[in-house]
Write a structure and sequence with these properties.
This is Replication restart protein PriA. Pfam families: DEAD, Helicase_C, PriA_3primeBD, PriA_C. The chain is α/β, with parallel strands linked by helices. About 30% of the residues lie in helices and about 25% in strands. It contains 20 helices and 31 strands. The strands form eight sheets. Strands 10-11-9-12-15-8-16 form a seven-stranded parallel sheet, sandwiched between helices. Strand 13 and strand 14 form a beta hairpin. The chain starts with a strand and ends in a 5-residue tail after the last strand. Bound molecules: adenosine-5'-diphosphate. The site of adenosine-5'-diphosphate has 15 residues, from helix 7.
Length: about 725
Amino acid sequence: MSRIASVLIPMPLPEAFDYEAPEGMALAPGDQVAVPLGPRLMRGVVAAIRDGHGGNRPLKQVAERLDEPPLPPGALEFVQWAARYSVDAPGQPLAIALRGARAPKPKPVRMLEATGRAPGRTTPARTKVLEAATGPMTAADLARAAGVSAGVVKGLLDEGCLAERLVTEDAAFDPPDLARKGSELNASQAASAGALADMVRAGGFSVALLDGVTGSGKTEVYLEAAAAALAADPEAQVLILLPEIALTQAVIARVTHRFGARPGEWHSDVAPPARRRVWEAVASGTCRIVVGARSALFLPFRKLRLIVVDEEHDSSFKQEDGFIYQGRDLAVARGKIEGAAVVLASATPSLETLRNAEAGRYRWLRLSARHGTARLPDIELIDLKATPPEHGRWLSPPLVAAMAETYGRGEQTLLFLNRRGYAPLVLCRACGERMTAPDTDSWLVEHRYSGRLVCHLTGFSMPKPSACPHCGAKDSLVSIGPGVERVEEEARQLFPQARIAVFSSDTVFDAREARRLVEAMAAGDIDILVATQAAAKGHNFPKLTLVGVVDADLGLRGGDLRAAERTYQLLAQATGRAGRKDRPGRALLQTYAPEHPVMQALKAQDRDAFVEAEMAEREAAGLPPFGRLAAVIASGPDAAQLDAFTQAMAQAAPNTPGVEVYGPADAPLGLVRGRRRKRFLVRADRGVDLSAYMAAWRARVRPPGQIRVAIDIDPYSF
Ligand code: ADP
């Protein structure tokens, strides 16, 4: 008999591998180990230990138990649960869970401090530096803070007025200050905060929907729930999830203000050493509050007591490539595993969450008015058939007039268009060719700032050619339709004096730039902000009184099950940015379909009517939240081989009552990077374990080497 460790490896392998634990090596589930895999040593995590024999083949041995924090039991269980739910290899979510553990450790940084020695020669620049040097700072930060050149700092260092010290950023996080008080809450905020605090104090798994109109103070309320969680247990941890990096910045500032300590920050833009620091501090328990994007769910929390999913309806919680998962659903699953409270917050909750609240599975807390004297904006529809923009323009006369009034009053306008770049399509006037990425069915988007044509799907880009690559005609390429850059161009022509900025993932590529723009907007340093959804949700801009939606119909095109729901949510969020302090707000929606139920519901601000109609349609069709959906995308380079395989796959679909399989059909993007794509859609009754069904189906087919099969539970774009 020997001890056998079953080890999960962060790679897309179908299962854990068994290794023999060497004599004298103490191993427990969750431990990080190095194990041989083929010719290499790989990092892995022990999933289980048992006594036994390796079977007929001698087992390889665990090479080393790494001196690294183990994955706590809840994190390990969650990784395995997520893999089963998403019908994917456990190594996929494990790779996300170990992202911080595998990052390099923070390196010591050279910091400067004032020594107290007076400079031999005093200049205004030198005085500024010595005044700015209130604590250890890098030379660059000190020069920036003092507004002087690097040479001034260097001179003071050479003279011994500043001294250098190597500092490694402290791994520990400051503890939250629980004696601090939050804002004075109004009556309905206090009622919701009290209910959440009770729920958190009671301990154990439970879910609440915090359903409050934009600006009603949901953040204030859930921060009180966080305070209750942190006070209930000196080791308790809190996770706050947000759909966008730009939003994490605003919430980090509010958490820091509320608890007098910076929370751990977690998203793709956090530098690897900082990531490592957060990961270790979460594992050791010193980091008690994390604010992050969906992947923060996979952090090694030891005692997670509260998970907040802010803007829970947001489709950015769905991870679409690599390991496919819906962050909101996994948050509820992690809450269940950890015995934690889960708060889903939104002004426009998803139909799934509303259904759970209606059915009594989730506690439902409502905030129906804005805080203080702020009112919801008036929403008007601009019928583009009746008052179209001038030829080649995108802003209609009524919208331009409203912008002029707003600008004249010294207030701000947000122009919302959920389309990056300058133009979504470039077309040859001579031959009709639409420019696409090589071997891909998606249009190239023109970006004027960079002068390139970019495929938003594959990342391919090329300089904009001067002649049509298809027919060779000179100067025949025309830009069709608007993106944010083009709307900005028009706004500049209309208001040449105004301060105008663009906020999209192309202009705001990191958290620092996002923070800078959000602060500039909040401070009133921008008159007109042209933005995609990256800026249109969650933020508070006190002087923003006009929101213009350039193309309200945009999201309604295309055959997505959630098209109406998502359009409603996005536009309610975007228009909800207007008039959040004492000045009344106005929102104008440009549409060709003013009679559409979504536009009518937005105008009447009647969410309940919209939800009721949409629920009835979904129920009649057995679609989520009344049924379940999954998609299969099979892809391969050879069309005939892919056809044969998907036909065989159709034959192999298990016959199960309550499950219907549709397909194979061409996927909406039938060709990506030279790979053909075919799709199945699967609909199931609510009672069916769809993950188990999909796993059983997949086990019946063996795709040939070049074919890949991806399963998407609860698909969003199909
Ligand atoms: P939501 O998350 O529902 O959109 P926020 O929590 O961001 O709302 O609140 C909107 C604005 O109102 C913020 O500027 C916030 O600071 C302010 N606010 C909300 N509640 C209060 C309160 N009780 N006291 C003071 N300010 C509040």
